[in-house]
Specification:
Distance between the termini: 30 Å
Strand content: 15-25%
Order of helices and strands: HEHEHEEHEHEEHHH
Largest sheet: 7 strands, mixed
Number of strands: 7
Structural class: alpha/beta
Strand order of the largest sheet: 3-2-1-4-5-7-6
Radius of gyration: 18 Å
Number of helices: 8
Length: about 230
């Protein structure tokens, strides 16, 4: 049986059982193959912008004999996907800034029947900001340690509502509700990164932006202090 890395498994668990899936930036197609083999998704698209990864994906699909369940697709983000081809869309292993760019140009994702699942390697705040400002609700988040690094993942759906959120929300999201120690550690790392940016901004940047970062850091620290974790 195919075993996923912890960070990819974290995203896989957010897929709704019985839904067709599109994996954007699929690489070896391990994630869609896992979903098919475990009866979570009935069919899947494995998409990548480069031919090399799709050749790797083809080998995975053939190895497990699931050619009839997974369609390989050369696509820059969502560009070559039809809205009717999937209900759950996954992006793992790319930065939050790129995720924001790919989602922002795909207007048909503003559909309450669709779910977007992302596992950003960096700059998770960029994709969170996009969700918040464009009527998407982040349903839940998770965190894990994989290969000595901390990762988060989140699932979002379009509601059309633009809810008022604390300024720190784009850095914390729904992670404070995740009662895992990895979520707390992830947020502690986020605060450390904010302080580093703040120090640089105080020396070389804008005092106004530095004050904004300081407010976010303080809010996040307060949230961390109030978190309950399972270990």
């Amino acid at each position: 049986m195919l075993n996923l890395s912890k960070r990819m498994l974290m995203a896989a668990k957010m897929v709704r059982k019985g839904n067709a899936v599109a994996d954007i930036g699929t690489d070896h197609a391990y994630l869609p193959a896992y979903l098919i083999l475990n009866g979570i998704a009935p069919k899947a698209l494995a998409c990548d912008v480069r031919k090399g990864p799709l050749e790797n994906a083809k080998k995975t699909v053939e190895h497990y004999g699931i050619e009839d369940k997974i369609t390989l697709r050369l696509s820059d983000g969502f560009d070559e996907i039809q809205p009717s081809e999937a209900e759950d869309f996954i992006m793992c292993g790319m930065g939050g800034t790129l995720m924001e760019q790919l989602v922002s140009r795909t207007h048909w994702l503003k559909d309450s029947s669709k779910r977007i699942i992302v596992q950003p390697q960096s700059h998770a705040e960029d994709i969170r900001r996009f969700f918040v400002e464009n009527g998407f609700e982040i349903l839940f988040e998770d965190a894990c340690t994989d290969g000595g690094k901390l990762y988060c993942a989140m699932a979002a759906e379009y509601t059309g509502a633009k809810l008022q959120r604390p300024v720190s929300y784009i850095y914390t999201g729904e992670l404070p509700k995740c009662q895992k120690k990895e979520a707390r550690l992830y947020l502690e790392n986020t605060v450390a990164r904010l302080h580093k940016k703040l120090e640089a901004e105080r020396v070389h940047g804008s005092a106004e932006y530095a004050d904004y970062l300081e407010k976010i850091a303080l809010e996040t620290e307060e949230i961390i202090n109030g978190m309950e974790t399972d270990g």
